[in-house]
Design the sequence.
């Protein structure tokens, strides 16, 4: 095994080890947050019962209990936000663990995850197979952005600012998504006509990308 391949293997092992450590840490955070949420929920119920029992005794006690309830609800909401964020991070790590390692796996991965969103043209597949340097991780990041954030922006579901922000947070490597241009479409016109949202295999039912 040459030194470069050995170094890549060592880096890959280190990266996977770090991912597993991060996942373990996130799982512990989730468990701790769930336990705290359960405790707060229990306290919340107890406070509510006490509040109802003391209501007739004094108006001031009622006000104090209401204030305590509001504080606990805020804390519960805050913890829920943290829990949602940690869960999202965990899902990202899990998704990256299952990412492909070579070009054939990558092409299958795109078809499985973005079957209704992304069409990989034959010339793009050929170019990818012939490329000397293949950064599969960056390609996966690009597909994630193209099939999720870019699509949402072009459909008007999110703003351009949100799209740019999502790109920065989602990807380790910066890149731009641009149009292919009319010259490419004219030169490879047949390849830019694909079957989309149809079970038909009649060429007349192809749509122009």
Sequence:
């Amino acid at each position: 095994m040459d030194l470069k391949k050995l170094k890549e293997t060592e880096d890959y092992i280190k990266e996977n080890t770090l991912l597993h450590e991060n996942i373990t840490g996130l799982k512990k955070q989730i468990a701790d947050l769930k336990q705290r949420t359960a405790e707060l929920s229990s306290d919340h119920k107890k406070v509510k019962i006490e509040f109802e029992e003391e209501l007739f005794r004094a108006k001031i006690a009622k006000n104090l209990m209401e204030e305590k309830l509001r504080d606990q609800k805020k804390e519960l909401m805050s913890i829920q936000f943290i829990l949602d964020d940690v869960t999202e991070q965990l899902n990202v790590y899990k998704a990256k663990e299952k990412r492909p390692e070579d070009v054939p796996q990558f092409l299958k991965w795109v078809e499985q995850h973005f079957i209704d969103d992304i069409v990989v043209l034959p010339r793009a597949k050929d170019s990818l197979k012939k490329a000397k340097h293949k950064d599969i991780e960056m390609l996966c990041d690009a597909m994630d952005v193209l099939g999720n954030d870019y699509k949402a922006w072009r459909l008007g579901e999110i703003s351009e600012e949100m799209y740019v922000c999502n790109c920065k947070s989602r990807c380790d490597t910066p890149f731009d998504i641009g149009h292919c241009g009319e010259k490419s479409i004219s030169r490879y016109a047949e390849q830019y006509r694909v079957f989309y949202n149809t079970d038909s295999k009649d060429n007349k039912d192809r749509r122009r990308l």
In short: Residues 33 and 81 are 10 Å apart (CA to CA).
